[in-house]
Design goal:
Length: 485
């Protein structure tokens, strides 16, 4: 049964953190707004990724730190209380109910339609609801696609029969597999390998490339690999899975065959081999786009291949930066842009202007919640060289800091700062070591604020904290090059 079409200023498809922020900002700009969601409000991050995975990792990281603190190491040898860990995970995931998000949505005045949304032409969306109705929505100003991504499973024989884990199964499981094979050495792979090894699984990490965290500075992946190996993870690099099967067709025992003919067995296999856009059944063909593809946008988040300026793509689906916080940043800007355009106002699209996503290109922050933590923002050395940016690399051993020695005995870590030699500003920073995640916002401010080194010299770090690394990096830059500061 179809209802009469409903007209809104803005239709948002996808109610994860990105869609929620777009809807909030559009409504705050005075635009009538509706949001469509086929699963749970809060999306992947709240229920199957960021929140539950960090809930699993927090006790792991806390115990790893405690083991290095004099006077606590014996107490930290006790196994984790699995029931308590899983209960905390369940609380952080809201027990997979979205009542709080629904209440919040009501409080900001945004309408909700539950169901599967498909474009049916310019500015038109049909929502197929769980009770078999079709709700027709039209947008006066904008349709915003915020459908995010899902796990990109490789095309290998047997994968459709072994019921592999993705991030969803790995963050929601209540039982620890005896043997877990993790395929992929990126952020999801190393974080979940860290978690499940500490929870009691024997983890084998299968990596196609020659190292972990390949998009970051090499030392970051090397430090994480060393800690994983010390914890008992079997890391195999330069390998490729060519087939998988469950010989008895039941839970347990997965047979994994590698390209060199080697075989190994696991009770579960987790694929963390990248992400794919959730656009396969979105009706893209009705507006001239190819289903299942990433949506290319300009710096105001309008989809470039659709005329008329009404279709926007925000968050993971535009492939700019597949992180929740960056998607929310884009959402805040996109909501302001839609509001300004609806009001006929001029946009500020200058670098770091109110209506352009400059940080997508120059200051994307990221934390990897492993032992040790990795935190980065801005350019890496490889990216600077690839793009022709003139930078000087400044490294520092974090273990030399009094704050690091206070943090843990035998502290291992490293910091790297890239100096833009033409502008004398910070172009990128990477930290790897226990407790470095909390250094990241200061680094992000330095990069996005384009703080001159002469001014940064006067930002005095407290002693004894790990943040003293800022002073040590600047001193190293000064002393190695004989530069005044």
């Amino acid at each position: 049964m179809n209802e009469a079409p409903r007209a809104y200023d803005v239709v948002v498809v996808g109610a994860g953190p990105v869609g929620e922020n777009v809807a909030d900002r559009a409504h705050a700009a005075g635009l009538s707004t509706v949001i469509v969601e086929r699963e749970l409000l809060g999306g992947e991050c709240s229920f199957w990724a960021c929140e539950p995975s960090k809930a699993l990792l927090r006790p792991v990281m806390a115990r790893a730190d405690a083991r290095r603190v004099p006077g606590m190491s014996r107490a930290a040898q006790a196994p984790l209380d699995l029931d308590a860990v899983f209960a905390h995970r369940d609380r952080m995931a809201g027990h997979w109910k979205d009542d709080d998000q629904v209440t919040w949505l009501d409080s900001v005045g945004v309408d909700l339609v539950r169901g599967h949304a498909r474009l049916t032409g310019p500015r038109r969306v049909a929502v197929h609801t769980p009770d078999r109705r079709t709700v027709l929505l039209t947008a006066r100003h904008a349709v915003v696609v915020c459908t995010g991504t899902g796990t990109a499973l490789p095309d290998i024989p047997g994968i459709d029969t072994v019921r592999p884990w993705t991030n969803r199964e790995a963050t929601g499981a209540d039982l620890v597999p005896g043997r877990l094979a993790v395929v992929g050495g990126g952020v999801v792979g190393v974080e979940l390998a860290t978690a499940w090894q500490a929870l009691g699984a024997h983890v084998t990490l299968l990596v196609r490339g020659e190292g972990l965290l390949r998009t970051m500075e090499p030392f970051a992946g090397e430090l994480v690999a060393a800690e994983l190996r010390e914890a008992g993870v079997d890391i195999r690099t330069g390998v490729e899975v060519t087939s998988v099967e469950r010989p008895d067709g039941t839970a347990g025992h997965v047979r994994i065959t590698l390209a060199d003919g080697a075989e190994l067995a696991a009770d579960e296999i987790l694929f963390a081999t990248g992400r794919a856009p959730r656009t396969a059944d979105l009706g893209l063909e009705t507006v001239g786009l190819t289903p299942g593809t990433w949506l290319t946008v300009d710096d105001t988040y309008q989809v470039t291949d659709v005329p008329g300026g009404w279709l926007y793509a925000v968050g993971d689906v535009n492939r700019r930066a597949l992180m929740t916080h960056q998607g929310k940043y884009q959402a805040r800007i996109a909501g302001a842009i839609i509001g300004a355009r609806a009001a006929g106002e001029a946009l500020d699209v200058s670098d770091w202007g109110a209506h352009t996503g400059t940080a997508d290109h120059l200051a994307v922050p990221q934390v990897v919640f492993t032992t040790p933590e990795v935190a980065s923002v801005g350019l890496t050395t490889h990216e600077a060289r690839r793009t022709g940016r003139r930078v000087e690399v400044v490294d520092y051993d974090l273990s030399l800091l009094a704050g690091a020695q206070q943090y843990a005995a035998g502290y291992r870590g490293r910091a790297r700062m890239l100096i833009d030699t033409d502008r004398r500003t910070v172009a990128g920073v990477t930290f790897a070591g226990p407790g470095v995640a909390e250094l990241l916002q200061s680094a992000t401010i330095a990069v996005s604020g384009e703080v001159p080194l002469d001014r940064l010299w006067h930002a005095v770090p407290a002693f004894p904290t790990i943040s003293e690394v800022w002073l040590r990096l600047l001193e190293t830059y000064r002393d190695e090059g004989g530069r005044p500061l």
